[in-house]
Structure formats: C-alpha cells, structure tokens
Amino acid sequence: MTESTTGASDPRVGWIGTGRMGVAMAGRLAKAGVDLTAWNRTISKAEPLQEHGASVCRSIADLRDKDVVFTMVSTSADLEHVLLGEGGLLADGGRQPGIVVDCSTVSTESSAAMRQACEDRGVGFLAAPVSGNGKVARAGGLSLVVSGRREIYDRVAHLLGHIGKSATYVGEGETARLVKIAHNLMLGVVTQSLAEITVLVEKGGVSRHAFLEFLNDSVMGSTFTRYKSPAFVNLDYTPTFTPVLLRKDFDLGLAAARRLDVPMPLAAITAQLVQAAVGSGRVDEDFAILLDLQAAVSGLDLKPENVAVDDGLGTARGDERS
Prior knowledge:
Blueprint: E1 12-16, H1 20-31, E2 35-39, E3 55-56, E4 68-71, H2 76-84, E5 99-102, H3 108-120, E6 124-127, E7 130-131, H4 134-138, E8 143-147, H5 150-163, E9 166-171, H6 175-203, H7 208-217, H8 223-234, H9 243-259, H10 265-279, H11 290-297, E10 309-310, E11 316-317
Parallel strand pairs: 1-2, 1-4, 2-3, 4-5, 5-6, 8-9
Antiparallel strand pairs: 7-8, 10-11
Helix pairs in contact: 2-3, 6-9, 6-10, 6-11, 7-8, 9-10
C-alpha cells in the first residue's frame, strides 16, 4: 500500500491533458492500479484510458476533490487556462486538490505564477517536466526532473516512479524548468549535428543505416541517437515532437541565456535552422525533418532505405509507421 497526500492509502489522482504524451503517461498510472480520473478538451482522446481501469470526466471541476492532479499541456497559456481559467481547477474558490504536479514544458515565469496561485490556495505545486516522447513513455523509459518543496516531492515520488524510469529532484522553485529547457536545447543541437554528419557520409557514398549502426555502437552513440535512427534511415517523420514545439523551447532557452548572461552561439545558430524547418511548412511532422533540410542545401536527394533499425526500445522499426 502507498501513502497518499492525505495520510490514507491509495491517493485519488486526476489527470489533465491526454495528448500523445499525456495519454501514455496517464496510462502508466492506470496500469499500475492507481485510482485515476482523466480530463481532456477532446474527450475521445482520454477514453482509451478506460481500458486500463481509469475513469474519464467531462469537467475539470470534477477533479477538484483529488489528492493529486497531474497536468500535461502544450503551452504556458494552456496551463494557466486549465488551472485558473473559467471552470479551471483552482478557479472558483471552492474545494481544491491537495497537490498539482505539472509535467508540461512551460516558461519559468508561467510556472512561478502557477506555483504562487497554488500556494495562495494551500495547494502544493511541483514542476515535473519529462524527457522522452509518447513511445518512450509507453515503454516506461521517461526521465522526470522535479522542483518544488522537498516534502511535497516525497509525497508523490511513488506516483512519479510509475510514470517513468527515474525522477530527479533538483531543488526549490522553478529549477526543473531550466533543466528541461537546457535538455531540449541539446536535443535540437544534437539532432542538427546528427543531420549534418549523416548527410556528409551519405554524399560520400555510405548508407545512412551503416553509418548510424557504427555511430550507435561507438562511444559517441546514445539512447537518443539510437532512438532517432529509424526516422533518419527510413525517413519516417511520424511526429513525436514537432518543429513548432522545438522552436518554442529554443525561444525559452535563449531567453534564459540572455537573462543569465550566458553566450550560446551553437544554440542560436540551431534556433535559426529550427525556424527554417517551421518556415518550410512541414509543421505537423517530426523535427527529424532537419535531416531533409540539411540534405536539400547539400544537393542530396534522400530516399527511404527501408531497413529494419533497432530503436533501442526493444523493437526494430523498418518502413512501417509507429
């Protein structure tokens, strides 16, 4: 039995936001037997959770009696709306949940404002953004970074353990937001670098799958390069993270760099290449289209290689969509 935020066993948990990431993360809780009720603006996106024993509600207000409510939304404005907007979780001055855990990637300013709004109402607040995407979440491979009062973190750590493989507590306030933004800056820079060197070797006569197999088995390979290899080899741009969302994170990261007086020339250059990806109009595909853009300016016409490639999650992905 687990200790809830109220001192009783088995906390009642609410979930707001069941997009690609949210439904996978909430599904981990439901499969673990957590008492879970989910809300999403489009109800049908939350309904698959019912297969795992979760409930679905039609109003955010239905979550106000929960011990813990997780939020997983796209933007700072979305977070502010679901918490403080009309019909929001904290909006009407009535019953409030015990703790809000926000897993979205939002600005430090918005996070601080929502933290203050929660604390003014006697509600605990944790910033808990994640590293990974929907497929990684379903496989239990997410990493979470968490900030807020340590005693609140300790009260929900068992729930975070159901969602991902690790949760790292990094301190008070909004420190988790800065860590996640720094992480996503590296995500973009590494992907652009991977695109450049992959195009270089292909133009020199080496297949993408052979090069990436070598890279992934070398000291330079990583969980991320292995995970992105099927997309690069087979040009499968089924979205896990779009150029628009990556652009948002570069905007946040470079703003933090200016605020803290940290020069970031590589990040600044990559931000312009991410903007070029957005400007290409391919905003509904995966940000791995950076490979296509690099090939285009290098005079290389890419073709899918249709080779099954290990993505590091226990599956080999060929030319099928996943």
